[in-house]
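step: validate -> pass
step: tokenize input -> pass
step: predict -> running
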Amino acid sequence: MTRPAIRSNAVSNPASNTTARNPHDQARDEITTGLNAHRAFVSPKYLYDPLGSRLFEAITDLPEYYPTRTERAIFAQHAADMARAAGTGSTFIDLGAGNCEKARSLFDAFRPEQYVAIDISADFLDGALETLRRQFPAMDIQGLGMDFSAGLDLPATLNAHRRLFFYPGSSIGNFPPLSALALLTDIRRHCSASSNDMPGGGLLIGFDLVKDTTVLEAAYDDALGVTAAFNLNLLNHLNALIGSNFNVRDWRHRAVFNTRLSRIEMHLEAKRDLVVAWPDGVRAFREGEGIHTESSYKYTLPEIRGLLMQAGFRDVRTWTDDAGWFAVCHAVI
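step: predict -> pass
step: emit ->
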């Protein structure tokens, strides 16, 4: 479930040329293009404004939402083995870092030389990094506000040797298979800044596995309605970003597992016929018509291995829970 530059003590985005488009204009164009599509959609990265980030944290504590606790248990049981496979003293690059707690839980095992947290929500990341710097004053801790969904653009201040990319939480599932492959290929390219691919670079990544449909759908449509609030909050974020007039009360949350595509889909459905307007644009929605807000693809273990190897990784090692609901994989370049 991905973000402008961090303020104090943070890595800023590399200098761009003066003809680069305003990021706000790019976001507006991306959003309005999706809203005007035959089947309306919005990128899931826009779920993560500050409130959305806090709501997602609450989701991870819900009894129905198994991925976080299942992955946490895998790390707790196998962190030492993972560290032996990946090596210690790396530049630990945390993609979609959020509150940084998953990476923090692995510091004792991996003993990174440098920690780089990357997240689309710069303000949310700031507070987490301040806490980490107090806890680990001797560690080089940096933050980078970035939407890496369209590719990584890493600054020169990052150490070049032994880069270990960390992408937990099955966030790779938010990308369609070809886009997931493109992102993994890009990560593989950045595992070492050296043209000779300095040894030790690699990836530690979480994948949600295919399982019973009722378990999957409950994880994305909990009884308390926290996931519904998370999804509906997207409309308030769109209002702030593009000046639209979405009314949250006009919409309902829906989550369904698409067996053909092996993915959970989250939608917002109109409760009645309505019209949504924004500067220079308008869209009519019929009752029951939806906006596709997120997909989360589920994988089998052979599919995971094939995807990583196709992206250029090798020596794939996998750790799962006893029920086979979730997998954490390590692979090297």
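step: describe -> The chain has two domains: 41-62+214-297, 66-212+299-332.
step: cleanup -> pass
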